[in-house]
Task: structure prediction
Amino acid sequence: MKGQRALDLSLALLGLAVTAPLFVALLFAGFFDTGSPLFIQERVGRNRVPFRLVKFRTMRPGTPSVGTHLADPAAVTRWGAFLRRTKLDELPQLWNVLKGEMSLVGPRPCLPNQTELIAERERRGVFAARPGITGLAQIRGIDMSDPVRLAEVDAEMLRSLDLAHYFRYLTATVLGHGRGDRLRT
Result:
């Protein structure tokens, strides 16, 4: 989509400015929850270049770095469950958007050890785009446990992404549509 980077920058700056007091409050609450409110993890970015994704921590420190669908549900703290349910854990990724590593809308960045998903996305040209905080797969509730379907939906989204879809995905995410990556139970 033409102009997506400028739109991402403008909305990320606005988002950080508007949510600054909330951001600080969430940092303090996270400090009391786990002692380490931010979670930084290597992810696969545009053109398969690795980058460091920033989120509010939702699991106990020391939890293995695996896809959410493979993580132990007991590792999620009560505070972390609230952050996930409200999607506030994603707020620090606005920094990744400002740095140019991510977009607001795009395929969710995967872990370097998710080799099947990486291969499927590579086949479909998904890595030509910046990864996003949200996108069509998140709205539809498709997570990284189904790599083939996820890569297909990511490619579908990128082929049809225009201004209307961009705002539709953002609005649906803010309104709580989709469940994102689900923990196994």
